[in-house]
Amino acid sequence: MSAFIDWLNGVVWSSALVYLCLGAGVYFTIRSRAVQIRQIPAIFTQMFKGKSSNEGVSSFQALAISLAGRVGVGNIAGVATAIGFGGPGAVVWMWISALLGASTSYVESTLGQVFKEQDPRTGEYRGGPAFYLEKAYRHTKARGLFKVYGMVFAAVTVIAMSFMLPGIQSNAISGAVENAWSVPTWGTAIALVIIMGFIVVGGIKRIAHFASLAVPFMAVIYIVAAIAVTVINADQIVPVFQLMFTSAFGIDAGPEAAFGGIIGMAVQWGVQRGIYSNEAGQGTGPHAASAAEVSHPSKQGLVQAGSVYIDTLFVCSATAFMILSTGMYKVFGDDGTTIIGTGRGQMVEEIAATPGEKWPQAGLDSMIHGFGASFIAISIFLFALTTIVAYYYMAETNLVYLLGKVKNTFVLAIGKRVLQLLILIAVAVGAMSTAGSAWALGDIGVGLMAWLNIIGILILQQPAFKLLRDFERQTKLGLDPVFEPEKIGVRNADFWDQRVARLKAGEAVPEG
User: What is the model's pTM?
Assistant: First the structure.
């Protein structure tokens, strides 16, 4: 089974997917005239605008839910594995994938808002790739094909989010906790199941509340710790950047020509771990984006583009500098001298052999002895826990989509309980599994979703750019942008058509 998982992972994450992710980012950047750069002021302004309603969450809460999914083990253990297998240059390719991926995130999240719907049972907004894949071409001859496509994506997402991906998060928690406090993995597994059981039964409102409190706190504290390490190792800033860019582009490092053949691995691991971390193009962001209460879909599209920056440029960079500036990545020659590496620290051989959460733990511990392991363990616990919660929300959204035609509320309730049980089992099993098997399974889930979603949004992209032009036009006129589908020629946006009709009838609608 392990050999099959590794083979399938290699097939899914072939160079074709790497090129697809980068190529889509380049294309959407050109098509949007670099919206992720031009609209940076609006990106960060829109994060704090809008209010929640009985039906939807605020823009900030939607950002927090999205960051809960994005900011997780990928930002700590994922960065370490990227550096371990792809060299320090993998970090630069994570930055590149984030910069390009922010435009992809804008497109997918805007489409999520355009084609979202209101759950008739709970009143909550739901949306995502499955919804826009089905709705965008509903009145064309291809409607049957796209409906099947949407159902395939929904099924893959339910499996990935409830079975394939949670194990990575819980595995990193149990590994970090065991390394810091010698707690057995079974003890951590039990604790995680209890905590997760309490949160997931509360629905989107409890998830949004939990995420909006935990995500900003954990991200800020973690970045502050990284800044402290930067100050202590200020003399390592230039060498670290030189090391990363030399590795990223295969520039020969002196007579050893150490990086001459590593560029392919740097790109592969940088993009793969970048997508796992920031999730741009994976199709997860649109789920959170769809839950937001906004007056124009582009508002949340911009917010979600910003979340990619926060995830990779801030949090991932913090981890990378912790590792590289403290000497936790080194390559030694036969005579024991350092061929590649910076920093004054010395990696313990046992830790060096297994890149993961132990690298930043050891790096921070070398600065403040006895503190690093515990701090990273707590950070990973908060990062991973909120990510698992976000996974459940996305799995439930797609389960509701698949069972949307089922009128029997009892069947739907049973489906949700089965889903909750499945994700709790995955968390428990993952906490007691080996790191390698957990990562391989998770990478397959991420890759399958990325294949399906990126191809989908390349086909369905047009409404996102119509909305961008409309948003920019209204903003230039000094207006608070409001979306009216008919005015800009967007079809099948049922929720928004109904919203416009209610406004014209004089009914009150949430302002967002």
Answer: 0.89
